[in-house]
Specification:
- The chain is α/β, with parallel strands linked by helices.
- Among the domains are: 57 residues, no CATH class; 112 residues, Collagenase (Catalytic Domain) (3-Layer(aba) Sandwich), CATH 3.40.390.10.
- The chain is built from 5 helices and 11 strands, in the order αβββαβββαββββαβα.
- The strands form 3 sheets. Strands 7-6-8-10-9 form a 5-stranded mixed sheet, with helices on one face. Strands 1-2-3 form a 3-stranded antiparallel sheet. A 3-stranded mixed sheet has the order 4-11-5, with no helix packed on it.
- A hairpin with a 3-residue loop joins strand 2 and strand 3.
- The N and C termini lie far apart (60 Å).
């Protein structure tokens, strides 16, 4: 049955979230959609259903745009069809808002985990993150002179963590950490969870939206995507589903290759001169 805005809202109602005065629906595990984004999401679900109706249960490979090689990272594209990435020289500054965490121990664990996750991406490709530690003590959750903030919010376990895409408005550039992140027996590597979320920050979609992924993996819209590498079931951007994936959420060799197609080699690979 074709889904409508009303049926999708009803399906996602248990994961509806009120945040900073706005209503969001949590889709695909860690994507926060506002009312406008939900409209596009439903349109893409309809398009996916139409594609499947034309053939078998699998969305054909040509539903995704193959870029620069074999049809694993998946990048997002803008309205003009070009890949989206942060501009050259852009430093992704951030702070970890201490007063949103329940204790010094939680804050330090979150801070260290984010630092390790950012380092992993900087070791993989030509992007730079910088922690503006002095701003961690901001008394409010609105910090305008960093690219994004990291903060704890209680979503009742609706997700472990969630982030944003480069195309999101500056007011939505936030990385959220749920209390479940600190639970014993989490089942996932905490730094790995943040490596995954920072992958979204760099512009990478979930790997398991690929046609090659097991049918048991969560369904997801395929709007505005470009394939950067072949399918990688161990990718940092792949959920653990259908008996594939990796709870450690490491950045794989194929992730490195895909991220370097977008951002080039890591800055550490160069001798920089003024």
């Amino acid at each position: 049955m074709t889904e409508t805005i009303e049926t999708v809202k009803a399906r996602l109602a248990p994961k509806q979230l009120e945040l900073d005065g706005e209503t969001y629906w949590i889709a695909e595990g860690d994507q926060l959609l506002d009312e406008d984004q939900l409209v596009f999401y439903v349109d893409e679900l309809k398009r996916r259903e139409e594609l499947r109706a034309e053939g078998d249960d699998a969305v054909p490979d040509d539903a995704l745009t193959v870029v620069g090689g074999p049809s694993g990272l998946i990048g997002i594209t803008g309205q003009d069809g070009r890949l989206v990435r942060w501009r050259d020289g852009k430093v992704l500054t951030y702070c970890v808002l201490k007063n949103t965490f329940g204790s010094d121990e939680e804050y330090l664990l979150a801070r260290q985990s984010v630092e390790q996750a950012t380092k992993a991406w900087m070791d993989a490709c030509g992007i730079e993150f910088r922690h503006e530690a002095a701003k961690d003590l901001s008394p409010t959750t609105t910090v305008t002179d960093v690219v994004f903030t990291v903060r704890k919010i209680d979503t009742g376990g609706r997700f472990i963590a969630a982030a944003f895409f480069p195309t999101d408005a500056p007011s939505r550039r936030r990385v959220f950490i749920d209390p479940s992140f600190f639970a014993q027996g989490l089942g996932f590597d905490r730094v790995g969870v943040l490596r995954h979320e920072l992958g979204h920050v760099l512009g990478f979609r979930h790997e398991h939206i690929r046609v090659e992924a097991p049918a048991a993996c969560p369904d997801e819209d395929i709007a505005d995507v470009s394939i950067l590498t072949g399918y990688d079931p161990k990718s940092v951007m792949h959920y653990f589903c259908g008996h594939v994936g990796d709870a450690k959420l490491l950045i794989t060799d194929m992730d490195i290759a895909g991220s370097q197609r977008l951002y080039g080699p890591p800055l550490s690979a160069f001798q920089l001169v003024d």
